[in-house]
Amino acid sequence: MFNLKNLFTRALLALMLLTGAGAALAGPTYHVTIDSTGYSGTGLLDFQFSTYVPSDDTAVFLSNFTGDYTDASGLAAGVLVGATDGFGYFAQTLNLGGRFGFDARFDSGAMSEGVALSVGLFSDELEQWLGTSGTIALIQLTPGEPSFVEVDTGFASASEVPEPATLASIMLGLTLMGSTLRARRKK
């Protein structure tokens, strides 16, 4: 006998498995927030991306920039910083005195070898790097080890962003479990 509800449930589960497969190709994403409220003038946000093994497919994608960046026209689409020769750099000028934010997504090549993203903040008015040793945030990923995230708490915070497909899969799983339990109770 043809059971439409059973077919719909299986099709929905297959769809969720397919949407989750695409997310598996991307590495983790971190949201970094920078607070420069105690400073004024212009400055520079400096990104340094490095890898232990140079590779063409190892990169970090910087996106979702928020804050008072100068000449931010190229930031809307995001910035891909590669490490073909082992190092990649990107710098963005900004107006200090507020909060800034961005997301850093490590692409699939980053998962095969160790990588690091270092973020520095320079004050033109003070003519110096702010934070501990000029680094306000450091994210290191090494295969087989937990992620290492270090921030200068006076300037920055960083947190991992959950993948949308992961959240959707959890919600679908809970929904399917609930409908299965409800169907068993009716019998």
UniProtKB/TrEMBL annotation:
Arranged from A to Z, the UniProt key words for this protein are:
Signal
- Indicate yes or no for the key word Ribonucleoprotein: no
Signal peptide bounds: 1-26
Residues annotated as domain Ice-binding protein C-terminal:
161-185
Looking up Pfam families in the UniProt record yields: PEP-CTERM
Q: Which InterPro entries match?
A: Ice-binding_C
Keyword Chloroplast present in the record's keywords: the answer is no
Return the protein name: NF038129 family PEP-CTERM protein
Q: Which species does this protein come from?
A: Massilia suwonensis
